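Human: Not sure, check this?
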Amino acid sequence: MMNQFGLFYYPGVTANWVLIQTLVYSLRICAVMLKDMESTGTKSVKYRAELLGVCRAGSLVLYLCSLRDVEFNSQLAHYEGYFIDFCEIVKEFDHDDTYVNMLSELTTTYQASPEESSLVVHRKPWLHSFDTFAISD
């Protein structure tokens, strides 16, 4: 639809929706770029630091908006998949505890169940326990 100025607009879409969508997509792109840098072995410390800074600042903006605006979380929920993907990628990097807690607080809002505990991995095979095992009637 066109408004009185001849510009296209979509009914029901506010600037806040567009801002949230742009921010979440941009943050996910930055996180994917960081992950690609790690996987390809790119050693540009300055570039990595800038991308991490953008991710941290953007997630801080989302966190502060979610604290101040009651409707923000419901609007952010429309981009839940991209946002959780962003948070999971960023958690792989070294951060201070405050930032990790902030990310966890943001993502637990959208998770249906609490995070699963990590599986215990045994380094020694337990198959040797079957050497003395016997079935008796």
Summary: The two ends are 79 Å apart (CA to CA). The longest helix spans residues 15-40.
